[in-house]
Amino acid sequence: MAVNPDYAGRIYPATDPYEVSRVKIAEFADAIGDPSALYRDPAAAQAAGHPDVIAPPTFAVVLSMASSGDALADPGLGLNYAMVVHGEQRFEHARPIRAGDVITAQTTISGIKAVGSVTMLHTETHIRTLAGEQLCTARSMLVERGAS
Amino acid sequence: MTQAVTYAGLEAGAQLPAVSYPVTRLSLVKYCGASGDFNVIHWNERLARAVGLPDVIAHGMFTMAQAGRFVTDWAGPGALVTEFGTRFSAPVVVPDDDTGAQIEVSGTIEALLGDGRVALALTAKSAGAKVLTRVRAVVQLPA
To answer: Touching check for A30 and chain B: CB below 8 Å?
Structure first.
């Protein structure tokens, strides 16, 4: 089944509020093998000028995936996830995401392009606090490899 | 412990020392749980091979996270990563053994942007293949 090109430009609703916790940040830092105290120790984070522990720069993917995951699982889109690999990823951070942030993420399918048997799907996710502070823009390009 | 870099001491074109980061099947299982990305190609060899991959492969975002660690370790605790992007050019193949694979990250100072902002250009290799290309990070160093 091919990806439906009509889904280009589709705007998905913002996710329910997600509260970033110290425990989740530490779990993520453990999973990437990064021992930095900034991700675990509030005192170390405060010494570096942050109100609480901060998240590693790629942590935003946890929030953007929660949002874009809904879009990618949309049956009408027709994406075969086992055939998907990550093509490109970019983050723009206004400031680090930190423990205590209450966040929503909103995804737009910004483009769908088929080249031969390969489809490239671009998404753009805006991560904001509930108070409306823009924290991060995450742009992904996913590649659905051609089905034989 | 890395020595904190200062903007005044930097030079465009300077090389940053390469660092090698290990990745095992356990790393990927942990990353599945922490990230919420349970795509079968990251933990099930049978299904990875069924879709034409050589073996289980690392999440692209796991590999990118190692490049992120390279940047934040170099820049020091007072620095902020304001932009970070990459292209995923080849998969990191993670065999089911006790050693797994290595991700080797290296880079250069691409440009000094003023006001303490530095652009880094990085690459990452695994098993001789370039796995991340066009990696670019912009870091705000503390004043």
So the answer is: yes
